[in-house]
Amino acid sequence: MVERRNQNPITDLYFKFNRLKRLERQGWLRSITSGETESVAEHSFGSAVLTLFIVSEYFPHLDAFKMAIMSLFHETPEIYTGDPTPGQIPLAEKERRERKAVKRIFPLRKQKKFAALWEEYAEGKTEEAKLVRQIQYLEMALQAKIYEKEHHVDLSEFIETAREKISEEKLVQLLEEISRM
C-alpha cells in the first residue's frame, strides 16, 4: 500500500481507500475463482447506489446523502483488517480491530465526521444505520444472483443470510423478488 507521512491528507486518504479496490470479498471466493469476484470497493459502491435508490423511493424522510456516505464507508476498516468472513474471528475481536483501524484511517480532526458516520453504522442504533446495514445485505443478495447466473453456482446461502438480517418490510419485499430471479 502506498502511504507516505507528511503528504496531503486528501491524497493520504485516497491511497488508503485505494486498497479496497484490490481487496476481493472473501466470501465469494469459496465458490468463484479469484479475479472474477467483486472488490470491497465495488460492494461499497453498489451498497451506496442501492441506498440512494431505496431511500429516495421508500424513505424520503431520511437523509439519503448521509446514508450513502455511511454505505460507502461501512467497510472502511478492511483497509487494514482485510475482509474476514463470518466466524473467522470472534465478533468482539473483529469489532476491536475495526475500531482501531478506523482511528488509524481517520486520524485528523477534520476527518472525525467520517469516523463518526462509520461508528454510527457500526453501532446500528439510528434508523439510518439500521436501514443501511440491511441494504448492504440486500446488495449482497443481488450480487449473489448475478454470480449464480454468470458462474452457474448455487449461492443460496447468501440469500438466506440476507433473509436473516433484513427485517424492514420494503427490503423484505425486494429480497423476495430477488430470490425469485
CATH class identity: Mainly Alpha
The separation of the N and C termini measures: 39 Å
Low-confidence stretches: none
Average pLDDT taken over every residue: 92
Shape: globular
What is the total number of structural domains? 1
CATH superfamily: Hypothetical protein af1432
Largest sheet features? none
Structural class: mainly alpha
Q: Judging by the overall fold, what is the CATH architecture?
A: Orthogonal Bundle
Radius of gyration: 16 Å
- Percent of residues in helices comes to 55-70%
Strand/helix succession: HHHHHHHHH
Stated plainly, the CATH topology is called: Hypothetical protein af1432
Give me some keywords for this one.
globular, mainly alpha, Hypothetical protein af1432, 9 helices, 181 residues
Task: Write a structural description.
The mean pLDDT is 92. This protein has 181 residues and is mainly α. The N and C termini lie far apart (39 Å). Helix content is 66%, strand content 0%. It has one domain (9-179): Hypothetical protein af1432 (Orthogonal Bundle). It is built from nine helices and no strands.
Structure in a nutshell:
The protein has about 180 residues and is mostly helical. Helix content is about 65%, strand content about 0%. It has one domain: Hypothetical protein af1432.
